Amino acid sequence: MEYDYDVIIAGGGMSGMLTAAAIAHYSNQRARILVVDRNQPAEPGKKTNNGWTCGDAVSKGSIEYLAKNIGIRYGKPELEHNVKGVLVYSPDHETRVLFEGEGYILNRKILPQRQVQDAMKVGVEFAYNVSADSLIAEDGWIRGVTGRNLTNNSIFKKTAKVVIDAGGSATKLRRYIPISTKIEKEINKDDLESTGRYIYTFEPAADDKTWFDSDYAIIHLDQYLAPGGYCWTFPKGQSKVNIGLGVQKSALDARNQKYNKKDTLQDLIDQYVKANKVIKNPVQSQDENDRGNTKGSWQVPVRRHNDCLVANGYAIVGDAAWMPRPIDAGGIGPSIYASVILGRVVAKALEANDTSESGLWSYNVEYMRFYGYPMASFEVLRMYLQTLSNEQINYGMKYFLSEDDVAHITRRQHPEFNKLRAFNPLMWFRVLSEPQLARGLRYTAQKSESLITHNMNYPERPEAWLEWKKGLMKHLEEAYERFQIRGRSSQYAELSARAS
Ligand SMILES: Cc1cc2nc3c(=O)[nH]c(=O)nc-3n(C[C@H](O)[C@H](O)[C@H](O)COP(=O)(O)OP(=O)(O)OC[C@H]3O[C@@H](n4cnc5c(N)ncnc54)[C@H](O)[C@@H]3O)c2cc1C
To answer: Considering the domain 189-300, what is its CATH architecture?
Structure first.
């Protein structure tokens, strides 16, 4: 079959643009690559009509990974502000924990402009103002994309050996994939966080570093202001901030019912800004680089990434593949790692002339072993943390979280909560004061060990996948049951029936 392109990437956001650059890099610019995006050329990477909505925080490590692997080095103005780490505060502000090392607060509006230049330099083509609406399928393979040209409503139709879905969290391509596949199509709505933020300049009204610190990205845990999520105050300068929060919709409904309120996400963001003791007279940034991007909300998937990322002639990446980390919704780092790995795998598959599910399979294996392996255990931890009250979080952070646990989380490992195993009278007293909390945390630590081992044994071949997935669902469904998480279909039972 004659194809229009080797690769079509649907969605030119963070993951689409980086995947394009990575394929070009690893194929020595031999691959013909087209990036299709609904945005106009002047606004690449824009997520929705209300901008490039993001907290903008990324670790230095992931930016360095990009430079090391595909030679892309960012600087000013796309790396807008440097931070020394991420500080997480308990709801009572009494316990403060430093997670993560150095990082950057990006300018998400400017960065895609740089990414387009990088991609064009290595021969990537762009089709802007095109909405990618469905996948072309034939004989159990994905062969291309159809959609609409938004400038004149004409039909867009192009074929490729591989279509990569990088259309973000609301992609229709994955949801309606028209071939039989291992890729899961739908996400449970409780695994999506509703999030929003402002980019403000302000008059610093106090020197209280628990509310604003130009050297640190701050996360405030608070089940009243951000039920099932968290609030953030990320500095973009001495008097400029990216400030917002995320909630789980069902937790917000429960919170509103409990307090007899009707607060929306936007109400909560405004209450959070108002509560901040440092930020006075906030004004949406007037900087040209922020125009059209100072107030916005959007959704972030916070479950483990899709258990399979490839099909015949097709792969998913970034938010379309539910890659943001379940405990902090950080999706830029995962997009970077996955895009580089996918780029390498696709270049090899094109070279070998095998873009089947098997030919692309090593993307599953490599991403899981390099970065994705703890995500299922973080999903369980996230579900458990969402059930806790502010008082329990205060207590847990103060007495049960050790430096070792923090180091584990920073290294993307599950905390072991070893303090809970200490046999001293004081700890016994504390455990007995909050026995349910102690038991819950211990359970997540044990579950994590088995989930990580399971994920590190991700099957090398597609034929062994069903058995692996069955094992995964068995672990997860035990955890859902333990934490009484309702509304999850029993995939384990379905998969067992299929396997037998
Ligand atoms: C409020 C908020 C705060 C966040 N904070 C952080 C943070 O601080 N740190 C962090 O690491 N992560 C954060 N994230 C997550 C992070 O922003 C995402 O993980 C990241 O943007 C994913 O990139 P992506 O390319 O996969 O998707 P997107 O950035 O959503 O890009 C998708 C692209 O596809 C295009 N597209 C969509 N549909 C179509 C279609 N049908 N046809 C053509 N084009 C289409 C869009 O126009 C867009 O260009 C946050 C997210 C939100 C919403």
So the answer is: 2-Layer Sandwich (3.30)
* pLDDT band at 430; cut points 50, 70, 90: low
Report which secondary-structure segment, H or E, holds 142: strand 141-149
Cβ-based neighbour number of residue 326 at 10 Å: 25
Mean pLDDT of the chain: 94
CA 391 to centroid of ligand 1, rounded, Å:
33
333 Cβ below 6 A of ligand 1: yes
Q: Does domain 5-50+108-187+303-371 have CATH number 3.50.50.60?
A: yes
The structural domains of the chain, with segments of one domain joined by +, span 5-50+108-187+303-371, 189-300, 375-499
Q: What is the pTM of this model?
A: 0.96
How far is the C-alpha of 83 from the C-alpha of 61, rounded, in Å? 13
Answer positive or negative: Cα dihedral of 95, 220, 110, 321: positive
Ligand 1 pocket test target in 8, 18, 19, 37 with most atoms within 8 Å of CB? 37
pLDDT higher than threshold 80 for residue 419: no
d(C-alpha 119, C-alpha 59), whole Å: 22
For residue 432, pLDDT over 70 is answered with: no
Confidence bin at 405 (pLDDT 50/70/90)? confident
